[in-house]
Write a structure and sequence with these properties.
single chain; mainly alpha; 86% helix
């Protein structure tokens, strides 16, 4: 099995694990674990798609990874801001 094939299976498994956890109610869409699985899976899929020269999948997964990573950062910052506002209004 090629490195690109192995990577696509691993990356796909990470994204599917996030999706299944979401469907089972174990995480919500803003959960850091959900976003981390999506980010990691998409990054692995980008590498696999680059190796296989599948440019459409490169673009798709770069956007997927970027959106998930943004959610990780923004969600963390947003929660910090809410904590600060809550503490200062008490």
């Amino acid at each position: 099995m090629s490195l690109a094939s192995t990577g696509s299976l691993v990356g796909g498994a990470l994204i599917l694990a996030a999706f299944i956890a979401l469907q089972l109610g174990r995480v919500d869409a803003g959960d850091r674990r959900y976003l981390a699985l999506n980010t990691g899976g998409a990054v692995v899929l980008v590498a696999s798609a680059l190796l296989a020269e599948l440019w459409g999948f490169v673009v798709l997964n770069v956007v997927w990874a970027g959106a998930s990573a943004w959610g990780l950062v923004h969600g963390h910052v947003h929660k910090e801001d809410l904590r600060e506002r809550s503490a200062s209004s008490s």
